[in-house]
Amino acid sequence: MTKLVTERLRLREMEESDAAFMLESLNEPAFIRHVADRGVRTVAEAQTYLRERITSKYQSQAYGVWLVELKETSEAIGICGLIKRDTLEDVDLGFSFLERFWGRGFAFEAAAAVVDYGWKVADLPRIIAIVSPRNTASIRLLQKLGLSFERKIRLSTSEPELELLALGRPRGVSAD
User: Fold this and answer.
1) I need a surface site. Which of 12, 15, 92, 112 has the fewest CB within 10 A?
2) pLDDT tens column, 67-95
3) Is the pTM of this model over 0.90?
């Protein structure tokens, strides 16, 4: 199901048939370096990951992590969406794009549409993002969206320290 359309992109709910893309995405060197190694090494494991961590959330929330594809060709290029983590009070903006699509503004275009969706459809009072301090490109993108550094956090005692950036709902913006 298509959730958002921008000038060049379409964001839609993911399906188990997206497992090959998910496998590639989770094993990109930048994803492993900046997010985590999820240990997903086969298409079957990617299907399980999608079912347990992504698509199961679609029914219970007005948001989720969506596949980002080029409008012209329907080629999958990344993921972007809103995540409600048990360990965080606010909803988290997350995104990851295949490295061969970096530097063309796709991540900003998708993330800006998702933030707008968070305000106008999901009616969120605040959106946060957590990011590795070494991931300067993502930090710059988040700052361009208007998020600002709030504090350093750890999602668990065994996890590395992350930066939490936040953005409150702009005045005058409400859900439709």
Assistant:
1) 15
2) 999 999 999 999 999 999 888 999 999 99
3) yes
